[in-house]
């Protein structure tokens, strides 16, 4: 492998790091997909097709990244890259944008179902479409003639930071909205019963003992799209702090894998969430019955006195 000083392709290092980590993400996505199709007998075909579509684009994204590394490092030995090499990165960028927009649309559908607010859902839909469009436009930087300086164009193109910032805003708003609605629904689920102060503490303890702190944190991280938002922040910070190192490009290549795994994990969490709700409801019901029986039993054992004037 040529050194960084001799190699005219400074993106090789970031792509190598990205592919190394993306291999783990790709394997996790494959494993989650296999588990999903094994246990998805009750799901309808649109959801099964969505998982298959995400897996197809993720395989193409991962395969083209490896193909670009092969052509740049093995086929030409680190010399000037072939004319079609930057085009491969452009296709990789487009495929990654498709995977990310599918993930955002999935979480957008959850906002629609939870809020039942058409205006809010429409705003998020417009923001998601804008983010996807900007990402597609940003990929044009890779479709350059072989005589152009690709790295200078990536550093000087204003559309690339716009794509990063729009993705960050979209994902942070999605995370915040889902988190607020989940918290509101949890509050409603606990306070919808008319409870006396003596009933509230045992009921709260039952709720926490059923779900567990670790389980709640993991479920919130998956459902609220927290992982994707954290990666967006890392990409933006690395771009503004160390743009010339192209560390942001290594992180950007991981985003499709993170989105795919986040989407698949959110789909898998449905069964766990249903089980937790059912167990919690049973324990809450048993707790209320036991407490009310304890209050009623002494009253029944002492007959009321009858006074006759």
TrEMBL record:
Keywords: Membrane, Transmembrane, Transmembrane helix. The keyword Membrane applies. The keyword ATP-binding does not apply. The chain crosses the membrane at residues 17-37, 49-71, 83-107, 119-138, 158-182, 246-267. InterPro entries: DUF6534 (IPR045339). Residues 167-271 form the DUF6534 domain. PANTHER family: CHROMOSOME 1, WHOLE GENOME SHOTGUN SEQUENCE (PTHR40465), DUF6534 DOMAIN-CONTAINING PROTEIN (PTHR40465:SF1). This is DUF6534 domain-containing protein.
